[in-house]
Design goal:
Layout lengths: L6 H26 L7 E2 L5 E2 L4 H20 L3 H20 L7 H34 L2
Antiparallel strand pairs: 1-2
Helix pairs in contact: 1-2, 1-3, 2-3, 2-4, 3-4
Length: 138
Amino acid sequence: MTSTSRPGKRFLPHLLSVLLLAGVAAAAWAGWLGWDQERDVHPDGSSTGPYEAWQVIGLVLTLLAAVLWAALRRHYAGAVFGTAAGLAGAAWYDWSDDSSGLFAVGVFMITVTTLGVTALVCFATDAVRRRNARRTGA
């Protein structure tokens, strides 16, 4: 058995990409959303927040760059599962002090949405790569 045919040699880079993307997602959550915990109360008594739209957009763009980086290297599991795990863990940690227990619904929604969107980004990235390879004959 040659060193290039060992299953561990192919598995390790993908495992590392899952761990790396989970860390990037958790750090991005902390950087963009983790510091803003206050709701804004308006004069009419309504409240918004705790996050502003620009914070969520910053988080999405940061994660999009990380997912594209992984997808371009064909680390689809890292892009999909790592990102979802990192966001789920960060959201759970951030929201778990909610006494109603509804934070679990929010974490579930973030996890499912992240799995779907990152899979879609990976699929689109792969489709573009294949189309370009056919055009160039590579």
